[in-house]
Structures are given as C-alpha cells and as structure tokens.
Amino acid sequence: EVLKAATGLYNPVNQFLLYDCDEILQDNQSSDEEIEPSLSSGQAYILGDEICTKLSTSRLFLVGAGAIGCELLKNLAAMGSGLTVDADDGCIVLTDMDTIEKSNLSRQLLFRDHDVGEFKSVAAKAAMMRFSADCNVESYTSRVGEEEDGPFNDEFWSSGCDVVMNALDNIEARLFVDSQCVTHGLGLLDAGTLGPKGNVQVVVPHESESYGSSVDPPEPDIPVCTLKNFPYEVSHTIQWARDLFGGYFHRRPRQANDHVAEMANSEELSTFATSLIEKLGEDAALDMAKELSEDLGSIPFIVGTADTCDPEYVQAVKASSLKWAISQAHQLFFLSMNELIDKHPVDSLDDEGAPFWSGTRRAPKPLRFIPLDSEEDEVSAQQVIINERLSQFVRSAARLRMEMFISPDNGELSLIEPEEALKALEDDAIEKYKKRKSKEILHNLSGGGEQDAVSLILDELNGAKTGASFMPHFNLADFEKDDESNGHVAFVTAASNLRALCYSIPPADAMETRRIAGRIVPAMITTTGLVSALSCLELVKLLKGLPLTSHRNAFVNLALPFFAFTAPLPPEEISGMDGKTHTIWDRVVIKGSSKNPGQEMTLSRFLKKVQQSVKLGDNAEVSSISYGPYMVYANFLHSDDEELLSTSVLDMVKEAITSEDDDDFVESEERKGASQPEDSGVAVAKLGQKKYIDLSVTVEDLETGEEFELPPVRLMKGGIGR
Questions:
Q1: Residue 139 — φ and ψ, nearest 5°?
Q2: Which of 126, 248, 594, 647 sits between 20 and 30 A of 722, alpha carbons compared?
Q3: From CA 324, how far away is CA 527, in angstroms rounded?
Q4: Which of left, alpha, beta for 546 (phi over 0: left; psi -120 to 50: alpha)?
C-alpha cells in the first residue's frame, strides 16, 4: 500500500482489511512451563511446542528456488524448519536446475551480484546458512520430471519427504509433482504469481482434489499467420524477431556444420540434393540449399588465412557480413512486404466481400534505405527514422553474422560502428535500386518435375562447395537476454521495431523487448511475499492435521485490489462396480506371499488377488490390465493362454515395453501416434529399480457388458510391502 501511494500505480485498499487465520492457533492456552529460547520461541508461544517440533522434524521438499522459492526458504528458516541434529528427522530438500541471471536479482531476495551464473539451489542454500546456520538443507540441481534419473525416485517420494511445496513456473512440472503427491499420498502446496496476481492451492491427501483436477488451460500461442503476415501488437513483432534470431544465428550455423562434409564432396552433391527433396519436399529443400549457399559460399573463406590475427581476413568477414545483413534487410522489410501487397492489394476484398485489410489486419508498408542526398527520391522526416532503424538492424545483424566466423570471445573484432553500417547501406543503395530486386523471377517448383528441382538445388549447392572445402566450423549463438554487451537484444529490438514500422505498430524499447523475447514472467516481490506467507500458513495447517474446511485456497490481485479465499473442493467420486465409488487417492494394494518374498506374482494369481481385494462376484471379471500406455493383458485375447497365465506380471510388463508387435496388445489407444518418451531399455531398467508397479485394471460386468476402471492397482514386487 505504501508503494501504491508513492507511485500512484494501482488502486489502494479503500476499506478495513482483515485476514483471520486463528484456526492455526493452539487449542488451549500454553502452560506456564518455560519455553527454551530459540529462533522460533515467539512462534512456539503462539502456535504451541507441538507444531514447532513438527516444523523442525518434517522433511519438506521445495521445488524451485526462484522468486517464490527464495521467499519460502526465508520463511521456513524463520519458522525453524529443519532445525534438528539429524537431517533424517528434519530437513528442507531443495532443487532447481536453473542458474541465476542478472534479471533475477530484482525479485529473488537471496541472491546478489556475485551469485550470477551459480545454480539457484546452491546459492539459496548458502544464503540460508548465513542467517540460519543450524538449518539442515539438502540442495540439488536436478530436474524434477518423469524421464529424469536423478535423486527423486520412487523411494524418495515414498519416504524422503512429508510435504511438497511448489515454487515452479511451468504447468508441466507442476502436473508431474502433483501426480507424485497423489500416487504417494503427500500434501502439496502450490503457489504462483503473475505481476500483482497471485494464487495458492493446497492439496490435502485423501481429502481434497489435486492440482491436476482443476488446472488452468495453457496460454494460447500466437497464431503462425499472425506472426508471419498479420501482426497487430508489438509482442507479435518481438516474437517474430526472436524467432528470426534463432533461425539466423543458431539453426543455420548448426545446419551448415552438420552438412559441411557433404558440401565439400562434389561427387555426393546430387545424392544429397535428392535426399533433401525426399525428406523436405521441393520448396523446403530449395530454401535449405539457398541457406547453405549463403553460409558456406561466403567470401571470407577465400580471402586471408581464416585467422583472427589476420586483418585481411577480419576485414573480409566484416565486408561479407555487412553485405549479407543489407540483403536480409531488403528481403525482410521491402521485398516480402511488396509481395504481400501484390497478393492482397490495399483495396482488395476477402471471401465474404469485406475489405481484406480490416479489423486486426494492417496493410504493410515496404521500407527501403534512401540516402539523404538522393536526387531521385524525397527524404522525409519519416524516411530519416527508417534509415536510422535500417542502420541499427544492419549493424547488429552484421555483428552477429561476423561472430559465426570469429568467436565472440575476441572482443571488439566483431563490433561494427554506426558509420560503417550507414556507409555500407549508402554504397549498396544505388546498385540495389537499379537492379530492382523486387521484380526478380521467383521459381515456383510446385508443378516442376524432380529433375528440374534437383538442378535448381544443385545450382545452389555448387555455390557452397568453395567455402565447404575449407571445412569451417561456425559458432552458434544461444539467445542471452541479460548480457547487454552481446548484441542479442539489440538485434531483436532493431528487427522488431522495423517490422512494427512496416505495420504502423508503436515500437518497444530494449527493456520491453528483453522482457517479451526473454519470456521474463512479470514478478513483484510484494506479491511473492504474500503468496509465500499464505503457503506457510497452509503448511502449518497440514502439519497440524486440520480438517479440509480449515484450509484455504487463495486468489489475489494486489492491483485491484482483490482477495478471495475458498475451501479446497473434495475429490471427485468415480463410479465403480455395484454402485461403489473411489477417488484419485484410492489404491488397491496387492502383496505377494510372505512365505516366498522373492517370488514374483504370476498373472493367474494376480487376477485372483484382484478379484478378492475388490470383492468381485461371479458376475464380473478383469477385462484388461495396462501399465502406463502399454496394454499387458486383455481377457478376449489371453483368458485361455495357460503359458501367459503362469508368467509373472513383472515379466509381462517388461515384454510389453520392449515388444514391437503392436497388432495384438502392446499399444493402447492413448499411445497410438505418440512418440516414445524414452528408450525401452531405459524404461525396463527403471522398472527394475521400483519396489512396486501401479497398474490400470478394468473389470467387466458379465451380465450387462459394462466396464469399470478400478482404482490404480499397486503390485508390490517380490512380496515387499509398504
């Protein structure tokens, strides 16, 4: 509220605001016994010794050490979490695979300038040790995900943590953590922010719905046609420019590196051209050949010694890069704009008879460089702006192009002065406008035969042979938003603002471009402080074992301001056989024989165990068994297969994973057309490390033919029980 008053931003709280959470207080007043002084002695006086002991002895798993993660760590340390002698009794387990960037420092309070480049989890632990040296913290840099082989395996989820606290920034990871909490019966606290907006969701084991039960839909992507031809917001032009950066300075140099050997061997060019057409199609193959010709047919390879100490080579690289940058600017902001207007004239109508250029569609304006002393064209004030922005684009693009040949570590070798870019544009202007490249004949391959296409592609590839014979290795650029000296944001800003000028869209400065291109999630430290505090209140409730009605999901918007608190919803009831119901938290546990704990259960015995466990009568039987996306058993195929019935369930699951026979029962409907997430050998190896396997079992009512899915059936391997 003080910041609102000082800045004039957002609406102040214009009423009395009270948040009452007295349900976390002690049921009875504290006794007169003296409380030992500690970091949380005041907390013990208010909440009681019992909850403070639980805080110090619980193993809390904090996923993420960003803005919310830093706030949560600070709070947990102040609350006395992990303050035990034995880390097995109480500990904060922290993981984050990201490293600290400069832009993080404004809102991630545990980090300082000297931490930039360090892993967030490592730096956050070090910061905690500075103000709570006795706190037990285990920090990891591992990703939490389904396909990861890190420390967070089934054993960790089943016995390595008591409560999970999410401080994540993506839905995929949230859903995975949520699934593990449901599978292992763990409490989950999920917090998120977006600028002044924040939310906290609490998942109470066996009592509430899960995070995945009511997850928000993902934000829609910008349509490709909008990015390519019809932008109407500066975010569209910035995303287009960001994609352009990736294509020019990462995809293309990697493409050249991958094919340089084939380009150097002239005998294999025709075979290579044919294979390109087979893989990509004629148009895409020709585009790729043109790119290879541009990148590998460049002048620098045939001038000088390809040595950064050779001034002749460096100058040749600079001249070639400037020429390339000017060519790209002409193609992007003049030729392509003209082509679009030729295809859809300003006064054209759409299929419904309405003006084509209406609504969000804006007719583009082609941009070209006109020298200030031009006698043919009038130079307006608007043209001066166009010239300046074209110069900025050429300067930044040529610099990054140079760094494909010359390592960025060589400092100022690749820097291009504004005067150099302007001079190159002026020298190029007369030649370019005489040739009138906008009227070049475009080859349309759609109706041509394969031989014609191969000839055209070979013409382009032949132009790449000279440069390829030197076997160069291009440097790749990964977009880095926080380094102001690398020219990455400068290129995206210049390209975006030129495209915005084409479509009469207000431009964006470098800071706004950095935020959008770098996908920086807007964060306010006041919002993260609020949702972290609310998360810690819900943590106390979870550890106290309070009923579901005492918990609160929170939804806030500090800008409006808006505060809403709702009790978590109970889990959805899923219909089963004979009117029975179950929820996502239920499991049917099947254990092996205690007399032969090392013996794996056969399919026949498993079917009988399931029949007994869920009390299926004679009028029902197991119709199918699946493990993830793999169908293991189907009664219409295998009910009379004595050999299969005597096979262990574990061996059947392994066979289903590794089998290539999808005509019978390997693949379920959900898996058809989907890509294999990991190698089958890896999946089988992971299966061998599990103490149990969760199976999806469907039963059939033999009288009605209706099928019902049971709760997940957990088969304990080798008779090992939990």
A1: -110, 140
A2: 647
A3: 47
A4: beta
Distance CA 110, CA 94 (A): 14
Please name which of 511, 709, 498, 523 lies closest in space to residue 623, comparing C-alpha atoms.
709
Q: What is the CB neighbour count within 10 angstroms for residue 321?
A: 27
Give me the numbers of helices (H) and strands (E) for the chain, helices first please: 26, 16
Contact 211, 178 (CB under 8 A): yes
Answer for the pair 46, 34: CB distance below 8 angstroms, yes or no.
no
Cα torsion at 211, 202, 192, 73 (round to 10°)?
-130
Angle between helices 649-658 and 603-613 (to 10 degrees): 110
pLDDT per residue as tens digits for the range 569-624: 999 998 887 788 999 999 999 887 655 555 678 888 888 888 888 888 778 888 99
How many CA atoms lie within 13 Å of 568's alpha carbon, on the beta-carbon side? 32
29 is written with which tokens?
Answer: 């007043």
Amino acid at the residue 536? C
Q: Alpha-carbon distance 2 to 5, whole Å?
A: 5
Each residue of 158-195: pLDDT tens digit? Answer: 888 999 999 998 888 999 999 999 999 999 999 999 88
Whether the pLDDT of residue 227 is over 90: the answer is: no
Q: Where are the beta strands (DSSP E) in 195-263?
A: 197-203
3-state secondary structure of 523: strand
Backbone angles phi, psi at 71, to 5 degrees: -65, -45
Contact 17, 44 (CB under 8 A): no
> Quick one: three-class SS letters along 359-399?
CCCCCCCCCCCCCCCCCCCCCCHHHHHHHHHHHHHHHHHHH
Mean pLDDT for all residues in the chain: 84
Give pLDDT tens digits for 10-31: 999 988 888 888 888 876 554 5
Mean pLDDT of 433-456: 53
Instruction: Report, as residue numbers or ranges, the catalytic residues.
Output: 225
Quick one: the chain helix, strand, coil %, rounded to 5?
A: 50, 10, 40
> What 3-state class would DSSP assign to 114?
helix
pLDDT digits (tens, 9 = 90+) for 104-142: 888 899 999 999 999 999 999 999 998 888 889 999 999
Three-class SS of residue 346? coil
- Given phi > 0 = left and psi -120 to 50 = alpha, else beta, which region is 168? beta
Q: How many residues are given for the chain?
A: 722
Mean pLDDT, residues 541-557 taken together: 95
Secondary structure (DSSP) of 643-680:
HHHTSBHHHHHHHHHH---TTTTSB-GGGTTPPPSS-H
What type of residue is 316? A
SS3 121: helix
Give a three-class secondary structure readout of 422-472. Answer: HHHHHHHHHHHHHHCHHHCCCCCCCCCCHHHHHHHHHHHHHCCHHHHCCCC
d(CA 379, CA 373) in angstroms, rounded, equals: 8
What would the two tokens of residue 242 be? 């960001």
Q: How far apart are CA 614 and CA 399, in angstroms?
A: 70
Dihedral sign for Cα 136, 142, 148, 150, please.
negative
**Contact status, residue 715 vs residue 590, Cβ threshold 8 Å:** yes
217 Cβ contact list (under 8 Å, min separation 6): none
CA angle 361, 362, 365 (to 5 degrees): 150
Q: Are the beta carbons of 120 and 100 closer than 8 angstroms? A: yes
Q: Tell whether the model's pLDDT for residue 283 goes beyond 90.
A: no
What is the arithmetic mean of pLDDT over 146-157? 80
Q: How far apart are CA 424 and CA 418, in angstroms?
A: 10
Which burial class, exposed, middle or buried, applies to 482 when counting CB atoms under 10 A from its CB (0-12, 13-18, 19+)?
middle
